[in-house]
TrEMBL record:
Family statement: Belongs to the CFA/CMAS family.
Single GO BP term: methylation
Name of the molecule in the record: Class I SAM-dependent methyltransferase
Keywords: Lipid metabolism, Methyltransferase, S-adenosyl-L-methionine, Transferase
Keyword presence, Methyltransferase: yes
Domain DUF7884: 17-87
GO molecular function: methyltransferase activity
Endpoints of the signal sequence: none
CDD domains given in the database record: AdoMet_MTases
Cited Pfam families: CMAS, DUF7884
Entry's EC annotation: 2.1.1.-
Top-level enzyme category: transferase
Amino acid sequence: MRTVFTEMTLNAWSTGVRGKVSLPLRVELWDGQYFDLSSEPPRVTIRVPKPSSLRYLLSPSLYNLGRAYVEGGLEIRGRAADMIRIGSELSASSGKPARRPNPLWQLSFHTRERDAEAIRYHYDVSNDFYAAWLDPNMVYSCAYFEDGSEDLATAQIKKIDHILRKIDLRPGQTLLDIGCGWGALAIRAAQAFGARCVGITLSENQARLARERIAQAGLAGQVDIHLQDYRDIEGKFDRITSVGMFEHVGTQHLAAYFEKISGLLAPGGLVMNHGITTTDVAERATPYGGGAFINQYVFPHGELAHLSAVIKAMQQGGLEVRDVENLRRHYARTCAMWTENFESRAEEISRLTDAKRFRIWHVYLAGCAYAFAHDWISLYQVVCGKAGEDPGQIPWSRKYMYH
């Protein structure tokens, strides 16, 4: 009886899906039966290991499908980019609203302890894990493709230089890099621009490797790395960069974050904020449960603000916005390259972490590429100075950014 009911249910479901969209997807059941949702050869296969796992398919969303894949409720085979595309189209065919308000449990209280815990969860997997799919400098943020033909390593150096030129960094100036990662920006700022740098991170793994790289480069007296919360920084700096950091601050704390940065900025100084934003003006969750998946499995307590809210918070924090650039398609390409690297070295990476985390990252990177490509999320570089202050030596036009 159960087998007959299951077969009828799946036949009705597959017929309904095929009536709305053609997907190169095969669904295999535990008893060997299968359903193809397109006349073309399948690019993705979903194996349902037991009847109770059917619920993930019959109510598809990126959250449900992603959770089932990560937790072993469904076995999914195929390239990650195809998995995400087909999962999104399958979710869209369900007729449910794409974006929903963020549930209250996703709006987090941000304390030093909770933020440090979240950073450790994401970044302290292992340095070898990240090195396996990032570029040699281990830059874990959006690259900059000046003409679109660059390889990843070149595009990441161009991104760093693009940032440092935008803030008009000069020899002898002091630079604070908030969320310094493995030190690539601070090292480049010292080597190529002659700056004296301080980088801060909450990841012990990042701090350790950054210090090793600084010593190897002979920059021990020019670059310092601190294991420190941004709320505890003291001093004045000519230039400040925040790259891929403010997504961890919390939308309710952005004004205070930028007020802290304004207080650290020396007279005549410049700050660059490079970060991910939502493209939804109501700041609802990323479509089809993708945001809920990332919040649970990838970035605990991460929150995305709309660009309008970011600019408002900057003004509330005492900063004046002087330049804004959208790099959304640059991040789509960056994430696609990371995904290709990850899949090309899958066997090695699988030995560096457990199976569950491997599956999380497998779909997370491809999911980000898809989200950026489809304008669900974006990436903005915003250059600021102190509100009401004469920019002083900063050139009148933007030409200086593109020498």
